[in-house]
Amino acid sequence: MLKMKKVWVLFTLVLMLGVLAACGGDDTSSDSGTETEELSGSVVVDGSGTVYPLMARIAEEYMVTEEENVSVEVARSGTSAGFKKFLAEDGTDFNDASRHIKEEEQQMADDLGIEVKELKVALDGLTFVLHPDNDWATELTEQQVIDIFKADSDIEKWSDINPDFPDEDINTYGPNENHGTYEFFYETILEEQDLKADANLQQDYSTLVTLVSEDVNAIGFFGFGYYVNNQDQLQAVNVDFGEGPVEPSLDTIAEDGDYAPFTRPVFTYLNVNMAKEKPQVKDYAVYLMENVNTFAGETGFAPLPEEEVQALVDELKGL
């Protein structure tokens, strides 16, 4: 009988120790009682110079307020150059793009076994900019803008548009072929008609801002955000699409807005393989879409409908 009591006491002590260990031995909860996962590592983003200000702003906020141990590296080699880095073994996690992915790029992703997810992040308005002292070309028709840039056109001087304009050569500027903005302009606005041979095309948007701001006979183009952030050096052309001049703005840049003919969606593309392998990549993708509308306006982009954004958030959470 005494032996049975000893066994029972020993069993009770073992059981109590097991309960205590379960309660306090493997505590992964925070002070608030919420389960948390410590994230670290890097998230690598490259691509569109147009989308860069929005992506850089979101990355900054994420690292400061959400995950200080995650490094989000955002570069801006251009949409096409960025896709080359994205569609490679050990490529980037995201590629920002001011156009849709091309068929040949998607085929390359398929060949490499990379699952790609398109994330529409905002709307941008292609904006034509002038030197601040240009007081004659602040309002142009859509066709006049096209004729200024296309090779097969008789417009070479400002006076070719209007005899009251200066008898001076028009100097055209824009981003080069690495940029989705160039491709949108060439393919959609010019309908694949060649640009003038002497068009000054640049890789860096800040260089374009400087060139136009120093040339009174200049006209250039890029995304609305670069104009907004450089209004002290530039002025925008109000474009007449048939019902009077329209100023590019967050209100007019929309799929059904008055500036719609020069409006386009912008994107970031996610390597889904990386999101499944690296928790920080998925976490950042979700944060990005949950907050993209908050930062769109301040960086020169028109926000998307909330239901459209929420649908993408739900899809990302389900990866």
TrEMBL record:
Keywords: Cell membrane, Lipoprotein, Membrane, Palmitate, Phosphate transport, Signal, Transport. It is a lipid-anchor. GO terms for cellular component: plasma membrane. Pfam families: PBP_like_2. Part of the ABC transporter complex PstSACB involved in phosphate import. Involved in the system for phosphate transport across the cytoplasmic membrane. Belongs to the PstS family. One of its GO terms (biological process) is phosphate ion transport. InterPro entries: PBP_domain (IPR024370), Phos-bd (IPR011862), Phosphate_ABC_transporter (IPR050811). It comes from Halolactibacillus miurensis. Residues 35-289 form the PBP domain. This is Phosphate-binding protein. Residues 1-21 form the signal peptide. SUPFAM superfamilies: Periplasmic binding protein-like II (SSF53850).
